[in-house]
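Archive transcription. Copying these from loose printouts into the bound notebook so they stop getting lost. Printout 1 of 2:
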Amino acid sequence: MSSALNAIKIRRKKNVKKGIQFCLMVCGASGTGRTTFVNTLCGKTVLEGKDADDAANAHIEEGVRIKPATVGQACLYRPTKYPNLLPLTDYYYYSFGEIVGYLERQYDDILAEESRIKRNPRFRDNRVHVLLYFITPTGHGLRELDIELMKRLSPRVNVIPVIGKADSLTPSELAESKKLIMEDIEHYRIPVYNFPYDIEEDDEDTVEENAELRGLMPFAIVGSEDFVEIDSRKVRARQYPWGVVEVENPRHSDFLAIRSALLHSHLADLKEITHDFLYENYRTEKLSKSVDGSGYVNPYWFYEFELDKFTHQNYRNHDSTLNPEDLASQSVRLKEEQLRREEEKLREIEIKVQREIAEKRQELLARESQLKEIEARMAREASQNVNSNEFNGEA
């Protein structure tokens, strides 16, 4: 019995020394506080902020830039409780294909490693376990772009919606914005990570904790890299002329709740869902494309699979006689076709928005015209009443 306990203790010490690998991705529009949140979460500067745009190149769209950063044990708040590796990926602009492609390439790496006869003992699993989607604090619900992007990301990663820079909203505006966002998520059936629980199987503490976290969604995030002294104690906060917003004060921000969920209470659950559900679904889809209806395996599948890790394309109906040069050429054509479809989709969204704006403008003009007619009619009636009264008086 003692030897078994010693073996368990030795394994635990090895795991603590080795660390638990956990990958977090932050995604959202520029200016929503992603960089500040990451640096606040890690307790030091991990990602450098962008001071200002270059006026000479301000008209050039930068596109997607993926910035991975590995955070060591000393960067986290409680190294003894939290993992000592936290790869973070930051996105500066929207691009559906690039973001989804990055997520799927991590799955491709795992699938390729599983398919090898001799596996690499030092292979590193870079699958993203959770994605924080930063929503612009407008005080309203989701934009069409937010809805479309979260729908595409959810099948590949656990998506948790958050409102960045939540201190820019009043408490009533923030409550209304949370309500509208969750209504949009439910209406458009976006499968976000909603801290699932089973009343019949889970204990009361788990049910209560998950229900409380679910009630906070989307999390209101306030981050700060500065310290402010309050009652002889220094706290992370944002100083304003009208007062101080404390990052770790539950009445001011949901930062403590999301930090505890990510790095402690729900870390294992996020990893399990990623491996057992999201990755297995992707693996089934990927492998099913390599086998036709008769069970015949395409002999070029593994080459296509290796190539697919870099081009992120779905190869269908390949001729088994194609050589590698033809496959590479075909992958380029497929990528160009995918980019063209995405551009068309964005143009359609832009046209739709412009059409809706034009319709609203016409409605406003029509209402203004109606109001003017009503005012003119009321003026005529008033004038007629005055004339009638004068006539009756003279009579």
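Printout 2 of 2:
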Amino acid sequence: MAGNVSLSYASNISLQTASNHSEPRWVRWLLITVALGFLCLFLVLPLVAIFVKAFEKGGEVFLAAITSPDALSAIKLTFLIALITVPLNAIFGVAAAWTVTKFNFKGKSFLITIIDLPFAVSPVIAGLVFVLLFSAHGLFGPWLMAHDIKIIFALPGIVLATLLVTLPFVARELIPLMQTQGTADEEASLTLGASGWKTFWLVTLPNIKWGLLYGVILCSARAIGEFGAVSVVSGHIRGLTNTMPLHIEILYNEYQFSAAFAVASLMSFFAIITLVVKNLIEWKAKKSVIPEEGAV
């Protein structure tokens, strides 16, 4: 199994090297220049502008914006939602990937389609689904009101909406990885007498740890930055149901531009940290594969 992975990695490197020498130098430099120019124009410059605008009126205004009661409430709620949804999606992603890759059953294609569905559905539509189900006039609304259970315009609704839009990230990272690895290691472990649970912890989980971490990072970034679905189910209640993206929207609509960009710069900082962690995970994953090439 390790040999197959190493050979695959080596073949990819060989193909990349061959492609580097198949085009004239001026074509490669032109493509690189166009790509870098596009990234600078549409990614780097807007990111720099956010930080410049955030500190435009000085550090005191910046600190006041990110430490106001409404901002602190939005920050706490955003990370609370991430702390709830990311572990749940990690558990679901591992279970779904295990089911899809280790077993053959009727409906496997349908299950994969359902996992991919949030990629195809607009987040606003995802939020509306929960409104139709759990609002006062929704399908379960009367029963929820009779039992004094509040989902829409409250934390449970925001968590459900975020869970839905972040559902595929971990599973979609693990399914191709586990399909490539196959079932040989698990079968060998079971043959040697290990239990299914022990096989998972000592064989499967170490094999998928980098893919799992990568999926968790992507899921976390989406959970923190989600706007559309959360906007529909939150009610925009200051200090209660506003996440950071919603708080930024309210500040901007009220012409509090410096405060809006201050909170936006804080989100951008979290995004940069996420990007750095993602690249470290990719580097670590590649580093763990390269030494095995000598053993092939």
